[in-house]
Write a structure and sequence with these properties.
Number of domains: 2
Radius of gyration: 20 Å
CATH class of the largest domain: Alpha Beta
CATH superfamily of the largest domain: HUPs
CATH architecture of the largest domain: 3-Layer(aba) Sandwich
Helix content: 40-55%
Structural class: alpha/beta
Order of helices and strands: HEHEHEHHEHEHHHEEEHE
CATH topology of the largest domain: Rossmann fold
Distance between the termini: 35 Å
Length: 318
């Protein structure tokens, strides 16, 4: 049966009115398509009783808070930005195991939300959770592939009721809803960004220094692939980014020996993120990305391209 976008939106608006009523609700807004669609649906149901909150974890894309705020200003929806970066880096200090990192991040998000909710008398938390999030997080007889911060990372006890209007949707369906809700292309067509942010693009322990390195590298990858896609030189990938490996390798800077980090570039084609094939990027484009990264990010001395499909890999490295 074809996905009925109009019916789905109407049903979720009605459900939001029923479940939330006249209670104020907090929505964790990342600026991605999932949380943005959830925001518009719930806003249509409860109006200004919705409090969209963007949490800056220190692990977001370059200038992300400013970018998201400007988009929602145009949509006439006021969002609040909370800088909790120090809290997140402190909580993650010394932690290198991927599942532990995800669970720390999930709990830290909830604690930030709870603090805000207490100040504003809020009892309901709205999340843009979609089907792959809870499927991959395991439970009910399923193996855990990786704990998504908004599912497997949730603490057992939290002082907020949960409302997730997109829980049974897949990514391509959420994009259909985004277009129906007339969200701008910069949201409706935006590539997925992981809830834990750059934390899952830093293999091993997370530091501010590593976050800054991978943020710059991700920005370069995004710029170059989007330019090539706009010129029709490549098929636009479903997701594309850079990740930082924990080990350093020997290289040469000028006439001197260097010992620097290795970056992995990844780009994949997919429909819903449940499976994916690596993108066949032209060698000249990969060469340009590699040259820019090693020239513009002084801590990086080597760039690799990941040609692994999902399965056996996942899209992100952690």
């Amino acid at each position: 049966m074809a996905f009925d976008k109009k019916k789905f939106i109407e049903e979720q608006i009605s459900l939001a009115k029923q479940k939330i009523g006249d209670k104020p609700a907090l929505l964790g807004l990342s600026g991605g398509v999932d949380s943005s669609v959830a925001a518009l649906i719930v806003y249509k149901a409860i109006g200004k009783n919705l409090h969209p909150v963007f949490v800056d974890t220190g692990l977001m894309r370059l200038d992300e808070a400013k970018h998201v705020k400007s988009i929602f200003d145009k949509l006439k929806m006021k969002i609040e930005v909370i800088d909790a970066s120090e809290e997140f880096f402190t909580a993650l200090k010394g932690v290198s195991e991927p599942e532990k990192k995800r669970k720390i991040i999930g709990e830290k998000f909830i604690r930030v939300f709870e603090k805000y909710a207490k100040t504003h008398g809020i009892k309901v938390l709205v999340q843009g959770t979609i089907a792959p999030d809870w499927i991959e997080s395991g439970g009910q007889g399923r193996d855990t592939i990786k704990s998504h911060h908004n599912v497997g990372g949730l603490p057992e006890k939290m002082g907020l009721e949960l409302f997730e209007p997109l829980r049974d949707c897949y990514k391509h369906e959420v994009r259909i809803l985004a277009q129906e809700l007339k969200l701008p292309d910069e949201i409706s067509k935006r590539q997925p960004f992981p809830g834990p942010g750059l934390a899952v693009r830093i293999v091993g322990e997370i530091t501010k220094e590593k976050a800054q390195i991978v943020r710059k590298c991700c920005h370069i990858v995004e710029e170059e692939l989007e330019k090539a896609s706009a010129k029709k030189e490549i098929e636009h990938p479903w997701q594309y980014f850079a990740a930082l490996l924990p080990s350093k390798t020997v290289g040469v800077r000028g006439d001197e020996r260097s010992y620097q980090y290795t970056i992995v570039v990844r780009a994949v084609r997919s429909l819903d993120g449940m499976t994916a094939n690596f993108s066949h990027l032209p060698p000249k484009l990969l060469e340009k990305i590699s040259s820019r990264i090693t020239n513009e990010v002084s801590d990086v001395g080597r760039v690799l391209y990941d040609i692994t499909n999902k399965p056996p890999a996942t899209v992100e490295l952690e």
